Each structure stands twice: as structure tokens, then as C-alpha cells.
Amino acid sequence: MKNFLPWLLVFVITPWAAAKNSWTLTDATLRLENITQWRVDSRGIAFSHADAAAGLLPWDQFVSLHDAAPSLPTPTASTWRLFLRDGQRLAGLPAGLSGGETLRWNSPPLGVLAVPLSRVERIARVSTSLKASAPQASAEDVIMLANGDSLSGIVLALGDQQVQVQTSGATRDIPLDSVAAIYFAQAPAAAAPVSQPATAPSTAIFRLRLRDDGTLIISQPAGDETQLRFIWNSASCAISGDAIVSIEHLNGPIMRLSDMPPATQQERPFFGPPWPAQMNLAVTGEPILLAGQVQEHGIGVHAYSKLTWLLPPGYRSFRTRGALQTDSLYADVTVRLWLDGRLAYEQKHVRAAEVVQPPPLSLQNAVTITLEVDYGDNEDVADRFNWIDPLLLKN
Asked: Once rounded to an integer, what is the mean pLDDT over residues 212-218?
């Protein structure tokens, strides 16, 4: 008994003994493994099972870690989201502007964060429709009001109660309760060249999904299922493990095109304004659906759409699926995949409830890959298409 007691004390105080959730670990072969405890450091992810069996998965073999049964909150009309231009988002409330260049954002699981205003696309209530309310890119800030009106100007101050705007030479204080969304001014983006291969980041980067629907791109994760420490926006952060839904390796053994900005992007509807492609959402801003099931990864587009990416080095093949996000009998599209401008796959007259499943494409020495959705019959009626889980694979 004297020899057993020290071991028992160590077992009780170690955080690995207090695991509450089960997690799903995915490796480079896309094999799923159920685990109960985990710890991450510079080597990779150490893990154990309910039967005490343990292992270590190095970062170059790690794809993702998901809470096996996440409980997600129900958004309310007062719930706000901060959307960054690179697709990251955070729930919370504005906590002020610093020097007109930095937005302070109060995130419940992370505290008050400083975000450069140049990176902020918008803040919006959860109930705000993306397509219905989004203005064209503007040199001024645009405030969309809950009653459907809007005004343009310069946001001078922003807190959890009101926004102060300079518009037409006057300063107005607007209660935040009467605001649906604020879109921040955006400088015109220069066209990206597509003649050179992409450069892979030298540091491992990860996407952290939070239980309040937040999504962050982080680096240098360390900790375990009780608390995770990491670098975000050049700052050190820490978060309770209870707030985490998943950790995904963005530049590991697989990469998803939905996590990479396209080098060139064309949207040309048959009628009306363009529908910008949405990453990991349908083009309407709703979840991507396939046979009624929500798909976490994908690209939502509307015909006509043509997206081209520079391929990072080291990835040998590409695979994806696709389907229309509609049950309309009038929807009809042609989908194509191109490598370096050469047609690699085409399927015409894709209709509702039909799943497109191209064969895996060998990338060989390709520099670019292009995903195209063209008009079929019936002009572009209901031609909302999703590229689902577009994967680059090293193995």
C-alpha cells in the first residue's frame, strides 16, 4: 500500500484524469480514432483511450481533433459576430475603437482582443442575412439598420451600446440595438498573379473552432483538454478546453481549397449582381447541405463561377465532391476542373439531388487548379452549387 499511494496521488492531480468528453482524432490516412484525453506540444498530439492505451501522432500526420459530441448554443437576436476578411469569426460584443485603427472585441471565452480594423470585414447580428444585406465594397463604412435603411460614413466610436458615425458632415450616435450590421471600408484588392507556385507556410497553422461558433487561425498550440494556449494575431491567448469544438491542421498532410484564398475569382450571374463565393458556407451564407446533412467544409458558389488557386508544393492529388444546394427542378449546371488551364474533368447537366464525384486527380507538377461552375439549361435559375470538401493530399 505504501508503494501504491504515491502513484495514486499523481494520478488524481494530473489533468488527464479529469477528462469529460470523448474526441475524434483524424490522421493523414483519414482514419478516425476515438480518444478520451489529449495533450499538444511542439512534437504533435499525445493521446490516450478509455482503456488507458496511449500514443503520439506527430504534426506531419495530424489532420484534426473534434469533440465527438459538441453541444452548440442557440443564437439569439442579440448575438453578434465579428467577421474578418480571411474568414475568421468571433462571437461577442464590440468594446471600443483605439486610434481609429484597432477594434477591441469582447469574446466571452477569450476576453477582450485587439483586432486591426484593416482586417475586419463586418460585425453583424446572427440573424442578418449575408446576401440580402451585403453592400458593394465601399471607401466608407456602411451601417445597415434593423429597419432596412442604411447610411455611409466613418465610424468614430463603437461600443456595446452605440456606434458613433460621421456622415454628411454631421456626427450621429446610433443605438446598437437598432443596427443589423456594420461593414467597414475596404481598399480595392490588387489582382493576384497566377504564374508562380504558391509557397507553403514555414510554421504549422491550425483552425480552432469554438463552441460559440467562433473560428480562429492559430499557431504554436500547447496544452491539453483542460486548457489550450496558442498564438493568435501575434498575441498569446488561452482558452478553456470546454470552449473547443475542434482543432484542424491547415497546412499538414491535407489542405482544403476552402481554407485558401483563390488567386483569381470570377462571378458572372445571368441576371443581377454577382454572388461572391463563400468558404465553408453555401453561397447564401447558410450551412452547406448534402442529402439533408450539414457539411463542415466546402465552397458555395452560384453560376457562373470560376475560382483558381495556386497549388502549394508537396501535394500529389486532389479530390472533391459537389452538389446543388436546391431542390428546384430548373437548376442545371456544368462543372469543370482544370489543371494549368487544361480540362481535367467535366460533367454537364448536373441537377438537384445529383452528387458529382470526380475521380481523384493527379497533380503531378501542376501550378494551378481551377473549379468552374457554368450555366446549364434554364439560364442560372437556382444554380447554387457546393464544392464539398475539396482536398489536396500529400499521400
From this structure: 92
Specify which of 75-84, 227-236, 323-332 reaches the highest per-range mean pLDDT.
Answer: 227-236
pLDDT in tens, 161-189: 999 999 988 999 999 999 999 999 976 55
Widest Cα–Cα separation across the chain: 81
Q: Could you tell me which residues are beta bridge partners of residue 148?
A: none
User: C-alpha 19: how far from its chain's center?
Assistant: 27
The DSSP bridge partners found for residue 294 are: 289
Q: What is the pLDDT of residues 27-46, one digit of tens each?
A: 998 899 999 999 999 999 99
For the entire predicted model, the pTM comes to 0.76
Nearest of 42, 47, 90, 82 to residue 66 by alpha carbon: 47
**3-state SS, one letter per residue, for the chain:** CCCHHHHHHHHHHCHHHHCCCCEEEEECCCCEEEECEEEECCCEEEEECCCCCEEEEEHHHEEEEEECCCCCCCCCCCCEEEEECCCCEEEEEEEEEECCCEEEEEECCCEEEEEEHHHEEEEEECCCCHHHHCCCCCCCEEEEECCCCEEEEEEEEECCCEEEEEECCEEEEEEHHHEEEEECCCCCCCCCCCCCCCCCCCCCEEEEEECCCCEEEEEEEEEECCEEEEEECCEEEEEEHHHEEEEEECCCCEEEHHHCCCCEEEECCCCCCCCCCEECCCCCCCCEEECCEEECCEEEEECCEEEEEECCCCCCEEEEEEEECCCCCCCCEEEEEEECCEEEEEEEEECCCCEECCCCEECCCCCEEEEEEEECCCCCCCCEEEEEEEEEECC
Closest CA to 324 of 389, 256, 387: 387
Evaluate if residue 200 carries a pLDDT over 60.
no
* Residues paired with 98 in a beta bridge: 102
Q: How far apart, in whole angstroms, are the C-alpha atoms of residue 343 and residue 323?
A: 20
